[in-house]
Amino acid sequence: MVEIEEVHKEVASYVSKFTFALLTCEADERYDLFGTCVAIGILGQKFLLTAIHVVEQLINSNKQAVVALSNGPIVRLDLDDVVHIVREGVELDSCLIRFEQAPSVTEFLRQDEIYLEQDALFKEKHFMQGYPVSKNKMVKINDHENEQVVSGYISVIMKLDNSVKHDFENVNESAHVLFNYKAGIRFSEGAEPIQVKKNNMIQLRGLSGCGIWAFDPSLGKVKLAALFFAYKNGVGLGTRVSEIFGKA
What we know:
single chain, mainly beta, eight-stranded antiparallel sheet, seven-stranded antiparallel sheet, 3 helices, 10% helix, 37% strand, globular
């Protein structure tokens, strides 16, 4: 059995407060899970940080986009009010959905919890947490008062490594981070942690737009380091938050 430190479980619980599922809904239909987002408060405004391609898929569905908050409420989203993060010649796949209509119970990540000290980024353990489609049985809209709409997030402990071999095009060292998913440890609430291997890899569909979090054990601090947006052949790709908020 794979052992993980108790502090890792505590970090996962902390991160889950800001990590929400993005879905669509339509009368008398099931919710459909499209991606994950991170709730962030910056410059006095409230946002949901996610991947642009997730928002585009939500729009193209021609259904109502909603966010499922970790404490239960379902909130409708206005996707006409999205801030796209753009850098010429570099794919960032990142955007901010304005979320001023958030319920008062919603918690938002503070600016000092965003990791902009990128020189030290690769020295620490990292966590990725989000909602995989394969682990979430979508309930009918009329049933969601009696059953959580999303129930299964996963967390992965891994090490960022921009030297890992990959099949992505146009990776930019200053803007992107890479990690080997097959070298990670996967766990979720109430389940035993396992070493990720080829024969037990959960597909990461649904995690696009989730956070990659840095944990500094010497300081006991957790900070958002990057935004996950792509995955190929066991390797994940994310955008550094220093790149996102340097352009927002």
